[in-house]
Amino acid sequence: MNWKRAFWMLAAVNAAVLVWTVAWLFEPTSPVKRPARPNVEGASFTVYSKKEHLNAVMNDYLAEKTKGHPLQYHVWLADRVYVSSEIPILGRSVELVVSFVPKVIKGGNVELTEPTISLGDWKLPVTYVLRYLQKHAPLPDEVAIDPEHTRVYVALTDIRFGNGYQVAAKKIDLAADEIVFTLTIPTKQHQ
């Protein structure tokens, strides 16, 4: 085979490969089908907690909400939910303690029922004290006292923490020290 002929054959093969590559690169393709992104308002996580951890969070929240008010109170979880405050009576402070049984209700909110109330060593009538607390205690907007039915309603799902975090109760078993709630963190997704 002579060299001129081999050269032209090699040039023809190179040209064919070049034409095939250009045609392959510019060939129209069907668009990639992208699944629709779900429109989610937040990411939800199930959180398991203990009484001592929840006590710290609740009292930090209440300290911020009642800052500067003369009637201060503390909340803690033990065998029941306890609320205590110091009330001035005849020039001295007397401890007022109210305790409830927590119950998770539909929607993730909490109802506090079966109250017991003591002022120092005395047991007090529940309805009277709940009326007093309803009028004078600096309660967050998410807490509603119902003296007629001797209960307190806590709208957990209405509470917004830093960055819009939201909680909803799933289970409260104080005897077993099991507190389960859903934490929803808002997200910003763009479709």
3D structure, described in words:
By secondary structure, the protein is an alpha+beta fold. It has a domain at 51-157. The chain is 26% helix and 39% strand. It has three helices and ten strands, in the order αβαβββββαββββ. The chain has helices at residues 3-25, 51-65, 126-136; strands at 42-49, 73-77, 81-89, 92-105, 109-119, 122-123, 143-146, 151-154, 166-173, 178-186. The strands form two sheets. Strands 2, 3, 4, 5, 6, 7 and 8 form a seven-stranded antiparallel sheet that branches. A hairpin with a 3-residue loop joins strand 4 (92-105) and strand 5. InterPro entries: DUF2140.
Q: How much helix, percentage-wise, in residues?
A: 25-40%
* Radius of gyration computed on alpha carbons: 33 Å
Structural class by secondary-structure content: alpha+beta
Residue share in β-strands: 35-45%
Report on the biggest sheet: 7 strands, antiparallel
> How confident overall, as mean pLDDT?
83
Tell me, what's the shape? rod-shaped
Number of strands: 10
Low-confidence stretches: none
N-end to C-end Cα span? 64 Å
- The DSSP helix count reads 3
Order of helices and strands: HEHEEEEEHEEEE
